[in-house]
Design goal:
By secondary structure, this protein is of the alpha/beta class. It folds into two domains: 68 residues, no CATH class; 181 residues, P-loop containing nucleotide triphosphate hydrolases (Rossmann fold). Helix content is 46%, strand content 16%. It has ten helices and ten strands. The strands form three sheets. The protein has a five-stranded parallel sheet, with helices on both faces. Strand 4 and strand 5 form a beta hairpin. Helix 3 runs parallel beside helix 5 and helix 7 crosses helix 8. The longest helix has 30 residues.
Length: 290
Amino acid sequence: MGTMTAAKDALTFFSPEEYARKKEKILSSYDPAIEMNVGGSLFCRVCKQPTVYDDPSRLFIARCVCRCRLEEERRAKQAQERSERAKRFREAAEKMNVLGRAYAGAGFYSISLSGAEDSYIRAVERCEKFCNNFDAVRKSGHGIWLWGDTGVGKTFIGACMLRLLEKDGRMCIFTSAEKILDEVRATYKSATETAKEIKEILVNAEVLFIDRIDETRGKTESAVQTIAEIVRSRDDDRRPTVILSRVSMADYAAQSGMDRGILDRLSARMASMKLVGKNRFLSMPGEMEF
């Protein structure tokens, strides 16, 4: 039997005239493309379940929901929920984003490797492979610790990874350690958002990029613990994290005060790649318009 839209103890019984009028209206207004009339009763053409509850002895008739309709409503509800989650995520990702307009068109195709050291070329290739092979990466949860001096291209390479992953529909966030701490602190005075909600969004991203994590060196213990908690939770869930830093993982462990156990876990699950090259911020600018 189909599922009644109203509880049985709330059934409304009609007069004989009203019952006959309602039944005639139902039988004259159904859609033959999805329902069929069999002996004065309506059935779903797909699952063959009744789409009308009809009890002549009690003078009651009403539409009911068949298995197909229930499944359709369930899928529609799930789609709506996914859409709402995606919208909230996009809003959160935009809020946490620290990439400026200069990185809008970032792509691996635009990275010049002419004269670059072999280790630099290998790091760029592995970062691109991380994105192209993301289905496997997502299962393993392996991440990247990309480090090197200021201006060697860490953020740009991270932006290239972000754009490539987003092109494939991946839900990513590109932020910085300082931005995370700022947003968490802002919730202390917020009536609409909590630190827990901020952390959950960061933990649940398919890929989380944390730029300038070394800026947490010298911060309070609670600040370092906030970053550690997010990174540890992502590792527990096997969610890939890409960390961009001016120092190696070992130096960060020594200078930040982050629990060594967490960094030991990350060292076993993250590819550490050092970028060595010229500081592009110090290169001579091209022709200017003034």
